[in-house]
Amino acid sequence: MGLLSKKDIKLITDPLADNNPITIQVLGICSALAITAELKASIVMSIAVLFVMGLGNLTISLMRNIIPSKIRIIVQLIVVASLVIIVDLVLKAFAYELSKTLSVFVGLIITNCIIMGRFEAFALGNGPVRSFIDGVGNALGYALILIIVGFFRELLGSGTLLGYKVLGDPIEKTGVYAFGYENNGFMLLAPMALITVGIIIWVQRSRNEALIEDN
Amino acid sequence: MGLKEKLHNISEKVKGTKFQTMFGAIHTLFYTPKETTHSGGHLRGADDLKRTMMNVVLPLIPLLIFGMYNVGFQHNAAINGFPEGIGFFSSEFWNLDNFTFGALKLLPLVLVSYVVGLGIEILFATINNHEVEEGYFVTGMLVPLIIPIDTPLWMLTVAVIFGVVIGKEIFGGTGMNILNPALTIRAFLFFAYPTWMSGDKVWVAGAKERANEIMEGANLDAISGETILGSLAQGQELAYSVSDMFFGFVPGSVGETSTLLILLGGLYLLYTKVASWRIMLSSVIGALVMGLIFNGVVNAGWITESSKFYSLMNTEFWHHLLIGGLAFGIVFMATDPVTGSQTNKGKWIYGFFIGFISVMIRVFNPAYPEGVMLAILLMNVFAPTIDHYVVQANVKRRLKRLKAKTA
């Protein structure tokens, strides 16, 4: 037996594709819309959620037999809040500018539905190792969508990637700007993030028709 | 064998192949297809969707031609000075110079709008294997009439793709869309490329180009193409008389300037019963009421001349119908039967708020000097809700009547 069994691997790969927390379960949309105007912010947000979700799932799973079920939501909130505070302080200490860009959305990781959802649905009923893997898997699924959306929004909206001017300089008129190209300001506004997520959902479901819900 | 027969024969040949949808679209544009319903009793109207759509395109043609003259006229007037007190038939407006200049500017926009939009419609129809729907005939004509004349063609292409795919096709195509597709296209351009869609450099052909040349050091006079709403928002004196505004010798989007031709187009739409008179009338009432309220605020002295809203509030209430795109929006866009309210009472409410909100946005939001687009889109979103409550109220009233009778 290898390090991960087949079932464990499925815990990681499922959220990446056919059970993606954003595009299939439609959770965690708010932060996906709010902070994806830049690729860098998307990546940092993804790492933060990865950290909180992996450790959060692990912690809850370790405590699952001693948490009284009547107050379990409060316990979950305390766990996730402590982890988020750690992330927030680390960001403020080492990446102050970025933490200003992400502003309240780091704090709002607490209310991210994906995290509470995984605590409730998985960590409370499974062992610590599998819970940890599940947390990482779902965070990676979240990260994947965030990075795709961030990539397109930054590229089309500002003409840059991670701050590098990959399309040329819009003021000096170099690169594609020499041909009259202009940045699409709409991509930087939240509605376009929603539409981008919608297009990803569209593409994903038309490739795999089993995902289409009846209504 | 006539052309009609030939077309019918070809349509038999392509049946079942990938070209069926594309050919069928072209075919039924000219002739009614042979296929008819065989079973059951049916009343067959002479005007199908295509004919109805053409009834909307028809009154837009005079606006398009007037627009061509006006584009050239504004360009020349901005360089040589605006001729004093011109009448509707004055030769300073209706000359070949103006027309050729305007036509060369405008026709590419029309062409791109139709080719790209219809291309996407056909693509989707082929993939989904249904007939090409005719909704784009109107949209494709509306789009060049509501955007600035200098809009680059690639921007228009991007916007049309966005508007048709996101605004219409994903909801299920013609008849299923929530938002007016032409306004979706314009809204996309407006938010994506604001420097090309607002300000004083976009409404007269060549103004932006000229400004760039001057910046690079050319010895030229700048062309200013401030629209009436733009100058009012900045509290400047108006350069145009009321008759100029009514006839349409003013800068602006191509189709919106001539209130006279819009009025005639509106009468045609009412005569053919394509558009709803309730929506048109209530929109006009809404705009007048809001205008009167603002006039009242000024007259009561609640606002001083130093306020940045003063000059727009002080505009006489009925002038709002002459300036900007309000008249065009009310006649050709608010009355869209797909995106508007369906119930009669709903139409009154829907129309009233379009006029009301348009004038409100004009006055209170200098960043969006033209509120008609946003007002119509907003009310498009609310139209189903309005209808729902109108229907529910009706159900409730009838239930009450029933109870009173049976009790």
UniProtKB/TrEMBL annotation, chain A:
The keyword Transmembrane applies. It is an enzyme of class 7 (translocase). Its EC number is 7.2.1.1. Pfam families: Rnf-Nqr. It catalyses: a ubiquinone + n Na(+)(in) + NADH + H(+) = a ubiquinol + n Na(+)(out) + NAD(+). Keywords: Cell inner membrane, Cell membrane, Ion transport, Membrane, NAD, Sodium, Sodium transport, Translocase, Transmembrane, Transmembrane helix, Transport, Ubiquinone. It is a multi-pass membrane protein. The chain crosses the membrane at residues 43-62, 74-95, 101-119, 131-152, 185-203. It is found in: Cell membrane; Endomembrane system. Coiled coil: none annotated. PANTHER family: ELECTRON TRANSPORT COMPLEX PROTEIN RNFE, NA(+)-TRANSLOCATING NADH-QUINONE REDUCTASE SUBUNIT D. NCBIfam families: nqrD, PRK09292.1, PRK12405.1. NQR complex catalyzes the reduction of ubiquinone-1 to ubiquinol by two successive reactions, coupled with the transport of Na(+) ions from the cytoplasm to the periplasm. NqrA to NqrE are probably involved in the second step, the conversion of ubisemiquinone to ubiquinol. HAMAP family: NqrD (MF_00428). Composed of six subunits; NqrA, NqrB, NqrC, NqrD, NqrE and NqrF. Belongs to the NqrDE/RnfAE family. This is Na(+)-translocating NADH-quinone reductase subunit D. The lineage of its organism: Bacteria, Pseudomonadati, Bacteroidota, Flavobacteriia, Flavobacteriales.
From TrEMBL, chain B:
It is a multi-pass membrane protein. Its cofactor is FMN. The chain crosses the membrane at residues 52-71, 106-125, 145-166, 178-196, 246-270, 277-297, 317-335, 347-365, 371-391. Pfam families: NQR2_RnfD_RnfE (PF03116). The keyword Transmembrane helix applies. Keywords: Cell inner membrane, Cell membrane, Flavoprotein, FMN, Ion transport, Membrane, NAD, Phosphoprotein, Sodium, Sodium transport, Translocase, Transmembrane, Transmembrane helix, Transport, Ubiquinone. It is found in: Cell membrane. It catalyses: a ubiquinone + n Na(+)(in) + NADH + H(+) = a ubiquinol + n Na(+)(out) + NAD(+). The modification FMN phosphoryl threonine is found at residue 227. Its EC number is 7.2.1.1. NQR complex catalyzes the reduction of ubiquinone-1 to ubiquinol by two successive reactions, coupled with the transport of Na(+) ions from the cytoplasm to the periplasm. NqrA to NqrE are probably involved in the second step, the conversion of ubisemiquinone to ubiquinol. Belongs to the NqrB/RnfD family. Composed of six subunits; NqrA, NqrB, NqrC, NqrD, NqrE and NqrF. This is Na(+)-translocating NADH-quinone reductase subunit B.
